[in-house]
Amino acid sequence: MTRATAFSPASIGNVAVGFDLLGHSFAGAGDRVTVTRTTSGEVRLAAIRGAPVPLPTVANENTAGRALLHLKRSLPASLGFEVEIDKGIALGSGMGGSAASAVAAVVAANALLDAPLPLEALYQAAMQGEAAATGAAHGDNVGPMLLGGLVIAPEHGLPVRVPTPDWLHVALVHPHFVLETRRARAALAGAWALPDFVHQSEGLALVLAGCFSGDVGLLRRGLRDVLIEPRRAALIPNFARVKQAALELGAIGASISGAGPSVFGWFESAGAAHAAAEAMAGAFAEAGLDSDRYVSPVAGPAAHVERT
Q: Which residue range forms the structural domain that includes residue 30?
């Protein structure tokens, strides 16, 4: 087998309570990467389709390319890869687009190996790939894309999937507005108060306990962000109204997806999530922004090979 195409779903990084270490995938958007095995010993970007602006075609500067370069460290020197990327996740959307290309690339490439590499190797390679775009290697998007669903994404070692109740759904609204991850991370500079870290840790613990137990009361108590959201909210037009719209329609909690500008909320049913998505989109429209709406189980899909 010399050619494979893999799909990686979009994801919600941070999930309000777990900055850079918690994320979950969701259905409805994703990237496709086609990898062809060669004997050149090199990684070459042959095509990038679906991006509104030119993306890097030098392998080490492209998320998919850098991920494959990192993966090649464990492979024979003569093995090479030719890469075609079809973007399905908007750039600068807070939906994990940088990570999705990296994840789809390593999943496709792994399908072409005589001896496939273990999950941890794919995880580390995809994190290094995402760093080409974000400037930081973190797994809160990569982990859930590889495993599906809600995932704890440590810096080292395997990511850990967290069980979630079947009824738990997410509504995500993506305004047609670009917020670069590097700019969003720059907004986090400055001193932090220790009590805020304690409050945030409490929220993370309550959310994890609520997921394991299926207790919506615990989820409601925990799903809030006292660290990151206050510093990034001003970067997102009409954010306060969008969040309030989700809460008024019964959201368990709502916050910024990844680095933004997308906003998400968790709900007790798909019907509630659909209704809230419309209201959240309406709040973005008040700021003159069209938007895309997604509703999915929080236990979203995992990256997979579509064809060979």
A: 3-160
Specify whether 46 is located in the same domain as 149.
Answer: yes
Considering the domain architecture, whether residues 138 and 22 belong to the same structural domain is answered as: yes
CATH number of the domain residue 121 falls in: 3.30.230.10
Does 308 score more than 80 pLDDT?
Answer: no
- Peptide bond preceding 261 in cis form (omega within 30 of 0): yes
Q: Give the three-state DSSP class for 122.
A: helix
Any idea what the CATH number is for the domain that residue 289 is in?
3.30.70.890
Rounded to whole angstroms, how far apart are CA atoms 215 and 246? Answer: 20
Q: What is the pLDDT of residues 110-154, one digit of tens each?
A: 999 999 999 999 999 999 999 998 888 899 999 999 999 999 999
Nearest CA to 127 out of 20, 41, 25, 28 is that of: 20
Same domain, 121 and 236: no
Q: What Cα–Cα distance (Å) separates residue 143 from each residue in 231, 235, 240, 275, 308?
A: 25, 26, 29, 29, 24
Q: Is 190 exposed, middle or buried (0-12, 13-18, 19+ CB in 10 A)?
A: exposed
| Sole residue written with tokens 């997308």 | 262
The per-residue pLDDT for range 258-298, each reduced to its tens digit, is 999 999 999 999 999 999 999 999 999 999 999 999 999 99
DSSP code, position 54: -
Residue type, 10: A
Q: Is residue 252 part of a domain?
A: yes
* Cα gap 275→239, rounded to integer Å: 18
What's the length of the chain? 308
